């Protein structure tokens, strides 16, 4: 049982507790690491993190995993520079050396030029789409967790969203997966680090709406699986991205750039 206090002491302690609560909930006390691919989703997430924590308290992490092109990594650099955020890069390509996933540079598999819905309908109950890189996002989150702790970050931001999980196209984008990884990372770091995935139940169109509020420079981002100088407009992620802007009656600003027709 707690000792009885005189009102003056109790008041002083109450004020102290209030101050501590204010300090502990103040965003500037925390640092965040954002997994940033240079695409639409993670760039919007980076903008959210900067709004909440300030650019000095945000670190972006991009991962080279042996993808067919470096175009998205160039976008990640441009986006990080725009927000004045430090960008870290790591290379985990060796992990996927044996994979035949169509996104990988050593793969002979072609990237499908059709929507995720079409791919899933034609997949004959295959567990995932052909652009699923084996447990890639689990690996990314684990790498990011190790790096985040070393950089004194207490939050790890992950841009998974509902459209990528729908139909189980990418099971490592599901809410269940995010919750399991969050639990594992909290347990494995003695609660020094947590995962936040604010878009996990959102559509890509919802993310674009948030991005418009935040003034995200989408002309700097890159989503297309094909690389090149301009988006192919035919791969699943190009189709998803176009639909997300169309849902708001908008044209993707990426197509308004001088170097992209
Ligand atoms: Zn494309």
Brief write-up:
The chain has 261 residues and is α/β, with parallel strands linked by helices. It has nine helices and five strands. The chain is 41% helix and 9% strand.
| CATH class category label | Alpha Beta
CATH topology term: Rossmann fold
Total DSSP helices:
9
How would the global form be characterised?
Answer: globular
Q: What does the average pLDDT come to?
A: 85
- How many discrete structural domains? 1
Distance between the termini: 72 Å
| Alpha-carbon Rg, integer | 21 Å
Strand content range: 5-15%
Low-pLDDT runs: 1-27
Count the beta strands.
5
Structural class, by secondary structure, is alpha/beta
Largest sheet: 5 strands, parallel
What order do the helices and strands come in, and which of them pair?
Blueprint: H1 7-25, E1 32-35, H2 40-53, E2 58-64, H3 71-83, E3 86-91, H4 116-122, H5 136-150, E4 155-157, H6 162-165, H7 175-188, E5 194-196, H8 204-214, H9 236-246
Parallel strand pairs: 1-2, 1-4, 2-3, 4-5
Helix pairs in contact: 2-3, 2-8, 8-9
The structure holds zinc ion.
